[in-house]
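Please check our next protein.
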Amino acid sequence: MVATKRKRRGGLEVQAKKPKKSRKDSGQPVKQASVEKEVKEEDRDRIPGPVCKGKWKNKERILIFSSRGINFRTRHLMQDLRMLMPHSKADTKMDRKDKLFVINEVCEMKNCNKCIYFEAKKKQDLYMWLSNSPHGPSAKFLVQNIHTLAELKMTGNCLKGSRPLLSFDPAFDELPHYALLKELLIQIFSTPRYHPKSQPFVDHVFTFTILDNRIWFRNFQIIEEDAALVEIGPRFVLNLIKIFQGSFGGPTLYENPHYQSPNMHRRIVRSITAAKYREKQQVKDVQKMRKKEPKTILPHDPTADVFDIPAEEKPVEIQWVKPEPKVDLTARKRRIYKRHRKLQQKMNRGSAK
């Protein structure tokens, strides 16, 4: 087909003129092909850039805050989690008298659909709520063995805002309540892709391990050379109490039969120490009673002295001569020194005259 050219103001189509071929242009296709091959080879050797332009679709936002009465370690743990999770938001401390259902309204005001709430009781017990606001489910944990980033001083390090890998114990897939917790932890701790505050790198991993009916949280750095793991921190242990159908309440889906409240644990420890004190007092009373009892005198056994061998009697020596006095060498040296000193003083006086 011959290329045709159309006029702008309408009219008949005019055939476009073909460009004239010259001898110089005849060798261009070969050169272009060789250039394309070189470019392709260079592209193969190149390492693709870490950033790929995409759209931020997963709009997960997590609200991390606490109640009043927390200690310094809990505050530092909360700050560490906010630093590790760029998709988190902060809020002021909530009053203890307020009911937990108020948190759903706070999440709605902050435009957050997940929540991590730290609840302090008796200034020594810390509870953590993980909730999907406002429809649920939610889980309540007792937080134990808290170690923050500033406290651990580990050698590991990671880029602030980088996206983590999530590693779960195989036991999470065995029981249904652990599978529910796994999905809740994935939605809370995973940083959304293409989040504005996140970095397009994966250089650390969050591990969730089940041991002794508790969930152990650790944060490790992934070293590029040999893919070894170095701990960064923080670290803590979550002891599951209950899983609720709603957000911060509702019907109970699961209750941990192995859970022991901190008050019960302290009570058992006190009872053990009291039992030890009672045993010591009973032993002392028995010893006093034995001392007061009259001692039973046993009759002499004639066979008890059968194998006793009497010692040889040494002759008594009487000293008739007075022993010589002992020479005190230190006193003699002192006297000689004094004489020598007096002589020197006399000689010095004579020479002065």
